[in-house]
Amino acid sequence: MSRGQSLRLGIVGGLGALAGADLLYRIVKETPVRGEGDHRELVFEQRPMREPTSPKDPGYSPVHRKFYVFDTLSHMEREGCDVALLPCFVTHTFLGELADELGIRLISMTEAIREAVQRLTPRPSRIGVVTTPFVRRTGLFDGLFGDDIRVEYPSDMAEAAVMQAIYGENGLKAGNLGVSILPPLNDALDELHGRGCQVFVPGMTEIPLLLDQLTVPQGMTVLNTAEVYAHHALKVTGAEQRRRFKVGVVGGVGPAATVDFMAKLVAATEARRDQDHIKVLVEQNPQIPDRTENLVGDGVDPTVALYSTCKKLERGGADIIAIPCNTAHAYLDRIQRHLGIPIISILTAATDHIRLVAPDIRRVGVLATNGTIRSGLYQQALQTAGLDHILPDAPHQALVMESIYGPRGVKAGHVDGLCKTQIDQAIAHLVACGAEAVILGCTELPLIVKESRDQLGVLPVDPTQVLARKCVQLAQG
Question: Catalytic residue positions?
Fold first, then answer.
């Protein structure tokens, strides 16, 4: 079954091991819950990040950090994370570059800090920031709080002492949380306070771990940036308590049918703007071996290829899987038991549609490939729904196959002419045999048959369309 629709938050922990773990703790601690089931779904990813220089060095360049963060966020996105938190001020100097290239939403730490400062009363005129030389040079904090608030940094000497306390051999990043590293930070606070700073903003994500031990000058307010970031993340994602539903589509079976399904999925969605539409992940794999050739001949077994495609969709965060190929459903049972999310049956969708829109109908004709017919997929589905099935005789079944696979057939890109004539003849044959409805049981056939019930004299059932409507119904309800 699907893992549900809870919002999935990712935390990039490798940017500062202690700071990442601290943020994870604060997110869990600050989440309003009544029981364990109310907690957010979190993905914490921490891998060692190695850089030739550190942000305290004069010649530091964040290029390696950019690649590390991009790769980590890309992995989180593939794992279905909806938003990501980055407890690292260096990373926030290039947050826009990442946001432009990734689909995952990035929660801004500087935005969280700016909003927290705006809530302070009285409004400060000077804010002291202790950060790395690199972040200071980028101007990340300059102008962040408005033109009426001046940002002050420690002197070069005080900054160098703080960097040694943080990055030194026995510094905070090495795991030292003892009192020996506090004096340089206390001296920096005294200096900033002496320059008129009423608020202290830690510009390094490790410093909040020490706030309870620091000697803060009287009258100076300390902003716990880790706590602020955690609160902000929970607030801005609070309106998204449920993760946006994502439909996974096994594409390429066949390619034109996939495009048709996508168009019908969009058409079936009530929307006033782009953002009202459903998130869709398509894995277009036309190299999946032909299902009919395997079912009726000695063609390659497509099971592994179908399963592999479904697993990619599952890893990509899909909540359900749609396969716009009727014949592929012959392999559904063996694949489904190894997936954690459901494949929505096109067969059940079609029979449910008939019972819903025309409950008086009892005899249903089936137009499908030889593989689908031989597998008994629709015969069994109709029987389960309490309906009788009618199949074409051999000559008319040959016309159906020619309309699909022939040189002038739909898989060759034709939707009119000979293939249309052949399908019309097959439908007329089924009607003559007593069919009250006809299932277009190959997903390419709706590309040929576009007439209504009144025009055909029989109810046409487009499984692609009803599958699309079923996916929309699940996504919205």
Answer: 325, 442
